[in-house]
Write a structure and sequence with these properties.
single chain; about 180 residues; mainly alpha
Length: about 180
């Protein structure tokens, strides 16, 4: 596991694709648990409301990505690429979440003079994450970089739609008129 985590840096700096990860199906579950644990730790450090469905949203995102990658690879007859591709996606998500955690904590605290700067850096981190995901899709699906980014956006939109459906309380409420 330690060797795979260290390979994550090569993934998030575009020096290696998912094929660089070892084909270890038994590694998928520990990576998933690591990812979910990071989400829970960040929420608890932020003093987040225990009523927030952090675990459910994280699990929903992981499942959406797993199904999407499986479906894309299945259509091409490349099922054997699923383990490494999905492991790479979970790994980079975990590492970027760890890197962004201090920023997330600062944003959740609010009231800081640096809030604007932190928000801009958070946006850059999100775009970096999307770019790395697009790179992984590009490598795994043998498509162009832009198509890889579009493929990476699909699970994000799926999760947004599911969130609206299952957690409407998370949506901002419009101001009440007089």
């Amino acid at each position: 596991m330690k060797a795979v985590l260290s390979m994550g840096w090569s993934l998030i700096t575009f020096r290696a694709g998912p094929e660089a990860l070892p084909y270890l199906p038994r590694l998928v579950l520990p990576l998933l648990m690591f990812n979910l644990a990071i989400s829970l730790v960040v929420q608890s450090l932020a003093g987040g409301d225990s009523e927030q469905p952090v675990l459910q949203l994280s699990a929903m995102a992981l499942v959406a990505e797993a199904v999407w990658v499986w479906w894309l690879l299945q259509r091409r007859g490349w099922q054997n690429r699923w383990v490494q591709t999905y492991s790479a996606l979970v790994l980079i998500d975990s590492l970027i979440t760890l890197l962004a955690a201090p920023l997330s904590l600062l944003l959740m605290q609010g009231g800081s003079a640096l809030t604007g700067l932190v928000a801009v850096v958070q946006i850059v981190m999100t775009l970096w994450s999307l770019s790395v995901r697009g790179f992984i899709y590009q490598q795994a699906m043998d498509v162009s970089r832009w198509r890889g980014i579009l493929l990476a956006l699909t699970p994000l939109f799926m999760v947004m739609l599911l969130t609206i459906q299952f957690f409407p309380e998370l949506l901002p409420t419009p101001p009440q008129g007089k």
